[in-house]
Structure formats: structure tokens, C-alpha cells
Amino acid sequence: MSAAGGPARVRLRDRVAASDPGLLRLTAGLRTAGSIALAVAVLALLGTDVTHLVAGALAAMVSTFAIREKQRGQQAVTLALGLPVALASMTLAAALHSRVVAGDLVFVALIFCAVYGRRFGDRGTALGLIGFQIYFVSLFVGASIGELPELFRAVAVAFGCGALVRFVLVPETPTGVLERLREAFRARLAQLLSAQHDLLDAGPEEADRALEQVREGTARLHETALLIQGRLEGGTADERVAALVQRRVADAEIAAERLGLSLLRARGAERVDTLAMHLPGAPIPSGGRQPVKDEATETLRRDLVALRVLVLRPVEQAAGPSVAQLRNRLLGYRDEENLPVASPAVQDVFRAVGEAARAVLGLRIALGGARDETDDSPATARSREELDAEDAVLDAEEETPAEEATGLARPTTRAAVQVAVGSTLAIVGGELLSRDRWYWAVLTCWIVFLNTASTGEILVKGYRRLLGTVLGVLAGIVLAGAVGHNTWTAFALVLLFVFAMFYSAPLSYTAVSFFVTAALGLLYTLLHTYSLSVLVLRIEETALGAACGVIAAAFVLPVQTDRRTNELLATVLERLGDVTRSAVDQLSGEPPKELLDEARELDQALADLRAATKPLTHPVTPLRARRETARYVVALLETCAFHARSLAATAELLPTHPSIAADPRLRRAAGRIEHNLEAISAHVGDEHSTAEIETGPSIASLLGPSAPGVPRYGRITDRVLRHLQRLDEGVTGLARPLGVPVKAPEG
């Protein structure tokens, strides 16, 4: 039983780690629900009535989710500062309880300050959020001056319980989060390898589904890699170690995607490129519907399973003889003489397996894994020497801070003005609907502005909140009737919904709104203010608040979705050009640079663009042609980013890898790519630009003749040329959907 239970637990752990990288959603849900439960329990023991129990529960929730800093010391300071902010906000709300106009003006001012405070980083954001939300809690429970002592006690207990859960019961340290993220990366890499194994044998009917699974696995692996990069600085004490882990994670991601591409080529797909890995729903390329049929296929299946074994082996576990044998065999494929007899396309898969094994070895070493070199083959020893040499030359560079906008051009200032105007409209309209529940409209207006930057994003978020609210009201009607006035059953269900709300937050905002509204229905039941008309009023106030938010975004210092996406697209093109130029310069013989920092900036810019295009790619958008264009452009950019990252990873090997030599001809060959990126950027910035992109012969033909006695190019340079060729094709492909004219070929 124990032997069988061990692997089952490991599989379950890996599945959870892959579905929730770093257990960030699980931790957020447990911490928030735990804070509320503890606060309610303590307040109940102190004899607190139901109204103040509700206030304490809401304050515990606010004190938990508002704080997003990574270091425990910073969290403690912000939590300590948050308590007097909360008490001051509650005092204001109670003092102005009967003074409608003054209370409304103060509420709008508080909203402006809360949004403006985001410019001061995580602490400013947290304190602003606490101030606004506690004011809202005061309105919700009808706080008055006479109740302040009881309310102060409830809030103080809530903050204390939040601190206890955060620092003792459900602790979270940057180092621990990073460790769990690395486990998630390992699990997702293993899942991707399993999907690639299935792609190898998928028949004509299963080919599209198998490719979609590989595509989803590749996207999830990239998502986890970005999460790791975002946590490295805080989770690693040594800056050099952080940079090393970043490099090895990028190497492993690139090697895994390269392996997937080589498998597609081995299936006979004609002119397959990386777009097949990034365009959701795209069918398998022409000719790629038949499974791989080659004498070496059985060996390839075995080696894909062996690679997955290496990935899943715990970092702290030293390699036994059998594992070392697997590792040695796979790394041997990096040497041409060790390749099995097979077609050129299948041999390339074996090479990709060898490169992936090297990336796994490098990641293991970077994470401080147990190092057992007694069974190393010559190929494994060479790989270790290469990795050690790369680590020795690691040198981080300081980044130049970007110039910030000022005045109304600053995003936080613009958003503060917009949400203040929208909230004013929501207060006026909300009070016309209800003198007692008008604050729901203000809350919705506030929320639709959080983490949004364009009118389109606000419109989509408002629609999702309204849909979730309607569904939550229906659930609230059923639950209120089932629970009745059973206080503890209602609180238990509220805790369940709070956990579900935070667990689902990164996945679906509609689900978040559903759980919030269902929980509120139960809270109204506890406060003896529940009725069907109250829940219907919530729908009306939510719709009003969303409409006020959209109106403010559209008419007050508006940022149109087109303008926002164009700005981000220009940034992506600029970052893509930077990575390509730096990689080619280094491959041409210029001094080394910190290429992976530039690659990380490209990935972040692409993630921002992907988020900004969601209003354009939303299923309900009426502009279907525009939706497909946006999806296609983003997929093309992801393709280009992969090839640029691959160039950067290869260039990183140049100073230490004995089999790679600089080739000055690459600088000339890549000139067309740079020109075309600049032309597209010019057109994105000014639709009247006359810049044209250039087309012509293949990148390889632009190298020109080699020096006497020097080979035209070897396998490594051939890989560089392949990435440059695909990058050239991807950049050129952007011209049609973006409407950039193509220069007619000369002659």
C-alpha cells in the first residue's frame, strides 16, 4: 500500500503544482478564508453581535487581500500602517453617516486618493485599498458614532487575526513561493513532454487534438517561466544565482519548444514553423497528419519517456546508475556520431532530445541539485564543463530606469480622475435607485478600473461583473431560502465562497463576481436585510456602476483600445528588435551582453499586449474579422519572440562553447529583419508612414561566400540561420494584417 501510495501522492502533487503554479491561488484562498474564520471565532468568543461579526469578517478579508508585497518585513509594516488607516476611514464614515452631501464628497476624494496612491507602489496601493474598502464596509453595516468602540474592536481583531494567519498559520515567503514555482515548472515541463510523446504517435483523427495539447502545454510552461522570473529577485538572496536560474529556465523552455517543432517536422509537416505552436485552434500543418514512421521511432519513444524521467527526478536526489545511464545516452545525441540511423527529420528530433537533456541538467545544477559525476560519460562531462563555463562568465548589468510620464499623462493620475468622475456619476445614479444601497454602484465603478488601462478592457470587465452578479443573485435566492437564519451555516458557506473567489480570481472574473454576490446574499440574510428586491437592486446598481465606469473611461481622458494596443505593439516590436540586434551582434563577434534580461523584457511586453487585446478577442465582440486579426498578430509575435529568444540562448553559448565560432557575416544577413521591424513600428506609430518592408532571397543566401578554406556554415550556424529565417518570415508576415506596404523587389 505504501509503495503504491507514494507514486500516487507524487502524481497528485505534480498535478496540483502544474494547475496552480507556486500554489499561489490555493495560498490566497486559504489565507483569506482562514483570516475570516479566525476573526469570526475570536469575535464570537468576545460576545460580538452579528452586525459587528460581519464587519470584522469583511475587515479581515480586506486586510488580507490588500497586501501584495513579497517580503515578510514589508508586509508587516504595511499591515501595521493599514490599521490606523482603516480606523480613520471608519471614523470618517461614521461621522458623516447622516450628512449625505459631505459624506459623498469625502467618499469621492477617498476614491481619488486610493487610485492615485498606486503610483507609490505596492504599499500605496494596499493603503489606498484598505481606506476605500473599510469606508465601504462602514456603509454596508451602517456604522454610526455610537458604534465606533465595537467597530474599532472588530477591526483591530480582524487585523490581528489576519497577521496571525499570514505570518504563522499560512506563511508565505519569497523563497518558498519560488521553490513551489520551480516545482510547477518541472511538473508542467513533464506534462508537455507527455503531450509531445502523444503527438509522435497520434493518428490522422487525433492529430489536431494532440497538437492542441502540445500548444496548451507550451503556453502553460511559458506562463510558469514568467512567474518564476517575476519572483526571482525576492526569492533568491544572491543576485548572481537569480540570474543563473533565469537563464536555465529560459534554456529549458526554449529546448522544450524546439523539441515540439522537430516532432512536427518528423511527422512530415511541410514547412512547419513556430506559428503552429502559438495560434490557438490552428490545424496541424499540411502533411503532418500521419504518425512518425521510422525504424528509430521505438528508440525515440523510449528516449522521450527517459527525458520525462529526468525532469521528474527530485532535485535533491542524486542520480543512481540507471538514471545516470539515461542521462548519458540522451546527452550523447548532441554528438553527431551517436545519432541512430534514421531520416534527417527524425535525427533532428534526437538532437532536440539531447539539447533538452542538457537544459534539464543545467536547470538541476542551477537549483543546487545533488551532483554525482561518478557515472558521467564523456558527452555528459563535456556538457557539465560547458555549463560551468557559462556560469563562470555570468555578469549582471544594471538596468536604466525608464522615464516616467508626468501630470495627467501618468496612468495612475489619469485613472484617479476617471474613477472619481465615474464614482460621482455612480453616487448620483445610485441614490436615485436607492438611498440605502447606492454604494454598490460606486464599488462596481471602482472595481472595473482595477488592473485595466483602456476603454475596451473596462467594458469587458464590466460585462463580466454584471454576468457574474446576475448568476450570483440566482444562487443567493436559493441559498438564502435553504440557510434561513442559521448563522453558523451561513458563515461556513461565506468562507467557502471567499475561498472559491480567491482561488478562481486569476482564471475568471465572472466566477469571482458570482461568488462575491452569492456570499453577499448570505450576509444580507445574517443582517436580516435580505429580500428578493435587495438582490435585484444589486443587479441594477452593478449595471449602473459598470455603465458609469465605461462612460468615464470613454469621455474623461480616454485611452482607446486601439491606441493602447498600438502603444504596446510598438513596445513589443522595439523589444523584439533589441533582442535580435543584441543576439546577432554577439553571434557576429561583438562583446557579450546580458541577453536574457532583454529577452525577459520582450516576454513582459508581449504579455502586456496579450492582455490588452482581450477586448478585441473576446467571444462576444461583434467585429469577428478584427478578432481573428488580433489573434493572428499576437500568435505571429509569439513566434518571432520564440526565435529571438532562441537566438539569444545560442549567443549566450558563444563565449564558452568550443564548437561555436562567431560569424561576422550574420550581421549583414540580419539587416533586413531590423529594417522591417523599424518599418512596421513606424507604420504602427503613424498610419500615414510611407515606410515599406523589404522581401528577398533567404537569409542564408545573404551570407555571401565564405573565406577560402572555411566551411560555408556548420550545424550550429545552420540553427542560427534557421531561427533568423523564421524570424524574417514572421516579421514579414506582420505586414499584411497590419497594412504595411511591401517594397517591390528590384529588377
TrEMBL record:
Pfam families: FUSC_2 (PF13515). One of its GO terms (cellular component) is plasma membrane. Residues 426-551 form the Integral membrane bound transporter domain. It comes from the Bacteria. Keywords: Cell membrane, Membrane, Transmembrane, Transmembrane helix. The chain crosses the membrane at residues 76-94, 100-117, 124-145, 439-459, 466-482, 488-505, 512-530. Residues 371-409 are annotated as: Disordered. Residues 387-402 have a biased composition (Acidic residues). Signal peptide: none annotated. It is found in: Cell membrane. It is a multi-pass membrane protein. The keyword Transit peptide does not apply. Belongs to the YccS/YhfK family. This is FUSC family protein. The lineage of its organism: Bacteria, Bacillati, Actinomycetota, Actinomycetes, Kitasatosporales.
